[in-house]
Amino acid sequence: MKVKSILVSQPEPNESSPYLEIAKKEKIKIDFKPFILVEGVEAKELRTQKIDLTQYTGIVFTSKNAIDHYFRLAEEMRFAVPDSMRYICQSEAVANYLQKHIVYRKRKISFGEKLFSDITPLLKKYPNEKYLLPCSDVLNADIPITLDKAGVDWTKAIMYRTVCADLTDIPVDTYDMLVFFSPQGIRSLFENFKDFKQNNTHIAVFGTTTQQTALELGLTVNLMAPTKDTPSMTMAIEKYIRNGK
Asked: Disulfide: which of 62, 66, 71, 154 matches 131 by Cβ 3.0-4.6 Å?
């Protein structure tokens, strides 16, 4: 069965999105719906984790959500983040997002290529900082392994949680392809549609942990990204469609 309609489990992108270019070029329908929502924890909950923001000299950021919730809680707890704070970000896009909260050029900011493990040389370059890792309640297993291997002093701080979105208004079984980017997104599918059967639906996943969760829940994965040939999900989808899938 050829793919003529796709549901992407993310918020609708801006007008310059590659997804919209694919939809126009390949004459297919692409809809967007976030399968998970992010809820921030309160300052009192952070205190129960025995986190004192004043005790850290460096922060490791893996996402824009982590940045937003760190600065939100810092403000709620009346903590003025010092100019001397060191920031190590997973990617350049995450690092650039810091400009929403700080004067970028005046700070100590470093970033990796793309994968979390790419920041290992940076951690080893600045081994004497006491690092805080703002994160969600669901943490990729590679992250603590990478931090421990780097030999740095680090502490996890759960600053936000991922919860299933309400998808009951979505006719999920009418789409030819469903696209997932996290294990939580896969779980949200089954939380909302307990009797979901894949049948002829094509399943696309981003990342090995998402793939693993899909397989564990009985799905057949038809499309996987990133790969050497298709480093982005949009590239993978376009190639898949052009191959007549």
From this structure: 154
